[in-house]
Amino acid sequence: MALNSHIEQVLWTEDQISRRVSELASQISDDFRSASPPPVFVGVATGAFLFFADLVRKIDLPIAVDFVRAQSYGSGTQSNGAPTISLDLKVDVKDHHVILVEDIVDTGHTLSSVIAHLKSKGASSVSVCTFLDKPARRKVNVQLVGKGKFYRGFECPDYFVVGYGMDFAELYRNLPYIGVLKPEYYK
Ligand code: 5GP
Ligand code: MG
Ligand code: MG
User: Quick check: 135 and 106 in contact, CB under 8 A?
Assistant: First the structure.
C-alpha cells in the first residue's frame, strides 16, 4: 500500500517546509555572521536528520557539523523519562557557539539533557533550532547557554506527528512532509 494512504491529515507540505527552512537558514546566517570561530551545528539523531541536512545546506557560513544521539523514547508516543547521551560528538565544541538542531521539542527533556551535555563540554553558547515546537506539552523550560537564541520552524498543535525525519515505531521518517497517521496505524 502507498505511503500516502497511511496519512489522515497533512500539517505542512514539502513546499511550506522548504520555504520555512530557507527563512530559518538566512536568519541564523545573519545572526552568526560575525561569530568567530564559526558555529558548530549539532543535529540530534535520528529525528533531525532531514531538517538538519536541508538547513545546513542553506547556511551561508563555513560551519562544522556533527551529531549526538539522546535515547528517551520507546517505540510508542510517550516519553520514558530523562534521556541519556548514547552517541557523543566527534567535534570539539569547547569555546565554540553551538546551534543544536532538533526535530521537535515536546516535554523539553531531550533538549535539556543535550544542552547540559554541550555546556559541560565548554560550548561558549548553545542556541536551539527546532523544526517544530509543541509548547502546550512543555514540562521543563529550555535553558539556553550564554547568548544562545531559540529558533523554531512552526508551532505544532498537540498531535503526534510523523514525517520529515520523525517516526512512529521507527517508520515514516522518510515521509517528505509532516502529517498525522490514521488511527489504525498508531498500533
Ligand atoms: P521531549 O524530550 O521534548 O519530550 O521529546 C523530544 C523527542 O520526542 C523529539 O526529538 C522526538 O524524537 C520525540 N517526539 C516528541 N513529540 C513527537 C511527535 O509528535 N512525533 C514524533 N514522531 N516524535 C515526537
Ligand atoms: Mg529528536
Ligand atoms: Mg521517535
Answer: no
